[in-house]
Design brief:
The structure is a homodimer of 221-residue chains. Chain A has 221 residues and is an alpha+beta fold. Chain A contains four helices and ten strands, in the order E-E-E-E-H-E-E-E-H-E-H-H-E-E. In chain A, strands 1, 2, 3, 4, 5, 6 and 7 form a seven-stranded mixed beta sheet that branches. The first copy, chain A, has a three-stranded antiparallel beta sheet with strand order 8-10-9. In chain A, a hairpin with a 6-residue loop joins strand 9 and strand 10. The first copy, chain A, binds a DNA duplex (27 and 27 nucleotides) through helix 4.
DNA sequence: AGAATAGTGTCTGTCAGACAGTATCGC
DNA sequence: GCGATACTGTCTGACAGACACTATTCT
C-alpha cells in the first residue's frame, strides 16, 4: 500500500466489446493472468497511463490495441464505477466503455501471450467475473440495447456491404427478441444511414440487395 | 509540478445544478476564488477526496454540500472529460454530474464566503467560462433535455405538491419550446408517477388540482 | 414443381399534435 | 356577464405490429 492511494485513486478503463456470432450477441472476456483476481474472467481493461493517453477514450483504444490488436469502429463511454471496495488495491475508478466490432474482424484478434480470450454469451457469460465486471457488463449491455431499441443501427458490427436481413438478425441478437420484417424494412426505407448498392448476394434462393452505411453515419450521434 | 502527475491524473467532479426560475431554465455558476482561472465563472466542482468520498457520486454530493449547503433530490452522472490540456495543473479527469434542485430550495443556497453565485440562463450563461465548462454545460443540458423529451418528468424540480400547469411550464422551460396542453395531460392521465391529491389551488380563476410524485418515482429509472 | 429466402401490401390499434370546446373560479 | 385559467373532446395523420401476400432464385 503506497501512501498516495489516499490522495489519488487508481484509474482504469474497461471495455465491453460486443459482436454477433451465429446470431448470438457475444462479449469479449479475458482471463486475468495476474493478481488480484488471477484466473478470473474479466472485461478487457487496464490502467490509465497519462504519459501515453490523450484521453480516457484513447486509453481504451490503447488497451484494445494491446490486448487484442484491434481498432474498433465504435467506442462510447458508458459510465464510471468507483469506490474503496471494488478493487483490493485501493480506492479506484473504472471508466466503462462500450465498443462494437466488425464481424470480419472477429478472427483478427491476437491472443495475448498470457491471457486466454473468449467470446462469451453477453446475456449469460457463464463465468463468475472479476471485480464488479458482472455489473459493468450488465450496464454496457443495457446501454447497447437501449440504443438499438431507440432505432440506432449497429452497422459497425457488420461488414462494409451487408443485406437488410443481416442487419435485422444483428438487431435481433442484440435485443434478444425477433423483429417484424415488414416494419423493420419500412423504417429503413428512407433512412440516410443506408445506401442501396447495385450489387446482390447470390445463394440458393432469391438474391438479396446489398447496402452500405451512409456517409455521415454514426451509431450514436 | 509534482512527479506523481505523470502517474496519477487529477480527478475532479463538476455539477450542473439546474432549476427553473420564472419559467426559465437556470444553472448554478460560481465565480472561482483561486487560481487557475481565478474570477472566471464555472460549474461548482471540486477535487475527489478518496479519504472522504465513498464514490464519485458521493464526492459530487459533498461538493454541493460544501459550496451551497444543499442536498439535491436527483444527481446523475453524465460523462467524463479528460486529457492533458483541459486543466493547466496537469493531466486531469472531470466527472460531470447533472442535478435537479427543488424550486423551494432555490433560496436556501448558502453563499460561500469567497465565491460569488449566480443562477445563469442555462442556454446562454453570458459569461466566458473556466476550463471546458462551457462544453460541460452544453453536454449536461443536452442530457437533461433528452430525458425530458423521452418523457421523464422533472418532478424533482417542483415543490412536493404541484399542479399540472406548473409541471408543463417546467418541461417547457427545460425543452425551450411550448407543449400542447391536451397531449401533455393525456400522457400523464394514467402515469403511476403522479398521484392526484384532494386539494386545490385557489387563485383568481378556476382552482387547479394538486398532485404529488408517485411513491416509486425516479427521474431516470 | 417445390423449397427457401427476399421483399411488399394491407389492416388495425395506438399515440401525438392541433384546436375547439366546456367548466369554474374572482370580480 | 366577463376575463382568466383549468380541463376535456374530437379530428387527423404518423407510425408500428401482425400477417398474408408476391417475387426470384436454386435444385
Amino acid at each position: 500500500m503506497v501512501p498516495s492511494e489516499t490522495l489519488f485513486p487508481l484509474v482504469t478503463v474497461d471495455v465491453a466489446l460486443f459482436t454477433v456470432i451465429d446470431d448470438s450477441l457475444r462479449v469479449l472476456l479475458v482471463q486475468r493472468a495476474l493478481e488480484p483476481e488471477r484466473r478470473r474472467w474479466a472485461l478487457p481493461g487496464g490502467m490509465l497511463k497519462p504519459a501515453l493517453d490523450g484521453s480516457l477514450e484513447a486509453a481504451a483504444r490503447r488497451v484494445l490495441q494491446r490486448k487484442v490488436s484491434v481498432d474498433v469502429a465504435h467506442l462510447e463511454e458508458v459510465c464510471t464505477f468507483s469506490g474503496a471496495d471494488r478493487d483490493p488495491r485501493g480506492w479506484s475508478i473504472a471508466v466503462l466503455f462500450c465498443a462494437l466490432l466488425q464481424k470480419d474482424q472477429v478472427n483478427a484478434l491476437v491472443r495475448d501471450k498470457v491471457e486466454a480470450l473468449e467470446w462469451a454469451d453477453a446475456t449469460n457469460p457463464g463465468h463468475r467475473m472479476a471485480f464488479d465486471h458482472a455489473l459493468q457488463l450488465q450496464t454496457a449491455l443495457a446501454r447497447l440495447r437501449a440504443r438499438v431499441a431507440a432505432k440506432a443501427l449497429p452497422l459497425h458490427m457488420l461488414p462494409e456491404r451487408f443485406t437488410l436481413t443481416q442487419l435485422q438478425r444483428t438487431c435481433e441478437a442484440i435485443l434478444g427478441h425477433p423483429l417484424d420484417k415488414s416494419a423493420f424494412r419500412r423504417r429503413l426505407k428512407d433512412s440516410p444511414d443506408l445506401v442501396e448498392l447495385d450489387e446482390f448476394v447470390r445463394g440458393a434462393q432469391r438474391p438479396a440487395q446489398l447496402y452500405r452505411a451512409g456517409d455521415g453515419f454514426s451509431f450514436s450521434g
